[in-house]
Write a structure and sequence with these properties.
Blueprint (H helix, E strand, L loop, with lengths): L2 H31 L1 E8 L8 E7 H10 L12 H18 L3 E7 L3 E8 L2 E8 L2 E8 H13 L6
Helix pairs in contact: 2-4, 3-4
């Protein structure tokens, strides 16, 4: 094998190794950041009806949040929202450190509502005769959104 061929084989092996390493890093990033899940189903039997299901890696949502200009948060940063943003941020920081538990559990004749913390996610489940709703949001994403609201400058009108 000539030196040129050895160099080419080494170069190709390095490219393959980079792709494999990149795939592993991406998989770990998705796993660590979690997923944003929104699943809405019409009816409870699972037969017929419409369904909307969105699954998005949280790191994509984080990237979108970072790319969103501060002006998009100006309305949210004034008044009551900004007043409570620090409390919400601290609350979600503490929530991230807590073991899994159910925050709210409501059972009525028409629907059941469950809000719980599981792992690093806040999960909301709503079951009724008309629809079933499942929302899962990583706590870190909520904290990042609240932080972005706090850093936005209020619009003076």
């Amino acid at each position: 094998m000539t030196i040129r061929n050895k160099t080419l084989v080494g170069f190709l092996a390095a490219i393959v190794l980079l792709f494999v390493a990149g795939g592993i890093v991406l998989t770990l990033a998705v796993h660590n950041a979690g997923m944003v899940v929104v699943d809405v189903r019409e009816g409870t039997s699972g037969c017929g009806g419409d369904r909307i299901s969105i699954r998005l890696p949280a790191f994509v949502a984080h990237a979108a949040l970072c790319c969103t200009p501060a002006v998009a948060f100006q309305d949210a940063c004034c008044g009551e929202v900004l007043h409570w943003a620090g409390v919400v941020r601290k609350g979600f920081k503490e929530l991230a450190d807590c073991p899994d538990f159910t925050i709210v559990e409501i059972d009525s004749e028409d629907e059941r509502v469950r809000i719980r913390k599981k792992g690093n996610a806040l999960i909301v489940d709503i079951y009724s005769d008309d629809e079933t709703v499942h929302v899962e949001v990583p706590i870190g994403l909520v904290r990042a959104a609240v932080s972005k609201i706090e850093k936005a400058r209020c619009r003076r009108t």
